[in-house]
Write a structure and sequence with these properties.
Largest sheet: 5 strands, parallel
Number of strands: 15
Strand content: 15-25%
Structural class: alpha/beta
Distance between the termini: 22 Å
Shape: globular
């Protein structure tokens, strides 16, 4: 991929002038974004890289972990790194679909209705504590996440590009929450968790906020036009048919696993394909290799599986099931 070049935008609108940017420069840009985010989320490079992978693969990200480990900070830092429109919604039980999508407002002056777009009409949407909203409100995101559009009062409105949903949720608190249904979980490209920092990193956190919050130091390092150009280049990453067969074999094996009652869907297989392309691109290659698939398989596939009752109450973890599949399914030719 050393001879490849990507058409990148300047500091203007997404449709503005572009110039060719070589793969080395793209790699440098990705490293800059990771470094920018790590000023807030230190010691979590894998999670930050996974977030960037989702962005470049035109996907959506679910960050699931206990309170206070930096889920919202990671989402905010990634959003602030991109010069684009950003909206944040704090999901609550009384949140309505119109609070997300928007609605028509009546004007008594001339007797007409004017559509007022909701916060979903942004390049990056931060859905904080998404599982606190009702299923009806959660479902208002489904069309937007899969089709990049929103149907409101009989009219279909296209969403801006790029479009990324970053949602957070707390998996251990059940009071006043509504678990995401499988149909919505399947639309998230990856589900990641951050975990607790190690002791020295936690000590650093104590000293990092003496005078101001580290998030104040996160600056924009890439514009929306550049992200669109890289996303287009990611789609051009070559995937050999043998690797595609490996992806399908993993998905098929998940459907017949002894501990699984619902395996990976074809949509999940397609998203795994996209994630492998993005991972290869971030590694500076114009072609995917089996290691790219293995690197993204766990966060891409685990949340799409539904364990049977016996496995669930025996302590089987979905991530362990995916790792078992990676160990047992041969790569092939």
């Amino acid at each position: 991929m050393s001879e490849a070049a990507v058409a990148m935008g300047g500091a203007g609108e997404a449709g503005g002038p572009r110039h060719a940017l070589g793969i080395d420069e793209v790699g440098s840009l990705a490293a800059t974004i990771v470094q920018n985010v790590q000023t807030v989320i230190a010691g979590k490079r894998d999670a930050v890289t996974a977030s960037l992978t989702v962005l470049l693969a035109e996907g959506h990200l679910l960050i699931e972990d206990v309170p206070g480990v930096g889920k919202t900070m990671l989402a905010k830092a990634l959003a602030r790194s991109v010069d684009s429109t950003v909206s944040r919604i704090q999901f609550t039980p009384d949140l309505l679909p119109s609070d997300i999508l928007g609605s028509s407002v009546y004007s008594p002056r001339d007797g007409t209705f004017t559509f007022k777009p909701g916060p979903i009409f942004a390049n990056i949407l931060l859905a904080d504590e998404i599982n606190r909203a009702s299923p009806r409100t959660q479902s208002s995101l489904l069309e937007a996440m899969s089709e990049r559009q929103a149907s409101i009062e009989g009219t279909t409105h296209p969403l801006p590009a790029p479009f990324l949903v970053i949602a957070t949720q707390n998996p251990i608190e059940f009071h006043g929450t509504y678990p995401l249904p499988e149909a919505q979980l399947d639309r998230f490209s990856m589900r990641i968790n951050l975990g607790y920092p190690d002791k020295e990193r936690e000590v650093d956190v104590l000293f990092s906020q003496f005078h101001h919050h580290p998030l104040d130091d996160v600056h924009r390092v890439v514009d929306a036009a550049s992200i669109l150009a890289v996303q287009e280049a990611v789609r051009a990453v070559r995937v050999e048919r043998g690797i595609a067969r490996y992806l399908v074999a993993l998905a098929d094996a998940s459907r017949s696993h002894a501990s699984v009652k619902m395996g990976c869907s074809p949509r999940g297989t397609l998203i795994l394909f996209r994630m492998a392309q993005a991972r290869a691109f971030l590694d500076g290659r114009d072609h995917a290799v089996p290691e790219d698939v293995k690197a993204v398989a766990v966060p891409t596939l685990a949340h799409r599986l539904a364990l049977d009752t016996k496995a669930k109450y025996s302590g089987v973890q979905k991530e362990d099931v995916v790792r078992e599949l990676l160990d047992s399914v041969p790569v092939g030719d």
